[in-house]
Amino acid sequence: MEIPVRCFTCGKLIGNLYEDFKKRVSKGEDAGEVLDELGLENYCCRRMFLSQPEIREKIRKYNR
To answer: What distance in Å separates the CA atoms of residue 10 and residue 19, rounded to the nearest whole number?
Structure first.
C-alpha cells in the first residue's frame, strides 16, 4: 500500500514526507525522532506512517 497524499483525519499533506522517513528509518534512526523532525506531531499523521506494512513488521516484535 502506498502512503496517501493527505492524512485521512486532519488533511495535512504527508505523502511527500514518506520517502525521507523510509530512508532515514532504514539507516537506523529512531522512527519517533524522525517523525518529530519532519513536523508530524499529530497522532493521526504519525499513525499513517507507522501503520505501513513494512514498518508494522518491525514493530510487531515489540508486542507486550
So the answer is: 20
Question: If you write DSSP's letter for every residue of 7-47 in order, what string do you get?
Answer: -TTT--B-GGGHHHHHHHHHTT--HHHHHHHTT--SHHHHH
Q: What is the pLDDT of residues 2-53, one digit of tens each?
A: 788 999 999 999 999 999 998 998 899 999 999 999 999 999 999 988 887 7
Grid cell 506494512 is found at 53
Q: Is the dihedral of CA 49, 43, 41, 14 positive or negative?
A: positive
Its pTM stands at: 0.76
